[in-house]
Amino acid sequence: MRMNFAILRLMQPERIAALLAPYLGGATLTDAQLSQLATFLDLLIRWNARINLTSVRQPEQIVSRHFGESLFAARQLYPACNLEPAARSLLDFGSGAGFPGLPIKIYGPALGVTLLESNHRKATFLREAVRALQLTGVEVLAIRAEDYAAQIVNRKSPISDSLTVTLRAVERFQQILPTAVRLLQSSPASHRRLALLIGAAQVQTAREIAPTITWSDPLPIPASSQRVLLIGHSQ
Is residue 215 classed exposed, middle or buried when 0-12, 13-18 and 19+ CB atoms within 10 A define those classes? Predict the structure, then answer.
């Protein structure tokens, strides 16, 4: 097992870049960003042997499915990637193993990110990942979404000028999405977006559950016939 990890670290920067190319649309990652993704991958594989963070076990599939989808969302949400500190923030709702929040943070280092994960073991992993990746401006909260929404309402000033809430690969989608919408609409930020990484069959359900959100057309995720990015704006 140790030999496999050593080989993975030696090979991964170039291989990760090649695997992610279809999702980046011509954009490139720096050597430092690729190194962070390599560290994240190694950490995820090691922790996944102890706690169930993802059912995807093969490193290349993790890069394509998890990292790729997350970075595709990052490129669509922040195409210029010239983020001013504290001007924009992202709330990753039910972050799990850190997707899409951590790869988006790696893509846009100045972005303020909150990872919301009520499972304490997964939250512990997220804190370790933030430490290992040497990320700043990232908060990990082991708290229920409803409780966090109440905290937002009680804030006297906006978290940032712009807030994006992300939601990906969650169970009980029909029950969770309304909570994410309420959480988004509780924020006093001037500009508020909801970004869903979901199956194409869930798009209509999302529109029906959240009719107050102005939804854009779903964007097909590269190398997938069934996965899309659905972005909505809240007034």
Answer: middle
Asked if 214 and 232 touch (Cβ cutoff 8 Å), the reply is yes
pTM: 0.91
Which residues contact residue 208 at a Cβ distance below 8 angstroms, ignoring those fewer than 6 apart?
none
DSSP state of 106: H
CA distance from start to end of the chain: 51
Rounded Cα distance between 140 and 80, Å, is 26
Tell me, which fold does domain 2-234 have in CATH?
Rossmann fold (3.40.50)
Segment 170-218, tens digit of pLDDT = 678 888 899 899 888 888 888 999 999 999 999 999 999 999 999 999 9
Longest dimension (CA), the chain: 53
Q: Rounded to an integer, what distance in angstroms lies between the CA atom of residue 164 and that of residue 107?
A: 15
Domain locations along the chain: 2-234
Q: Which tokens sit at 206?
A: 């999302």
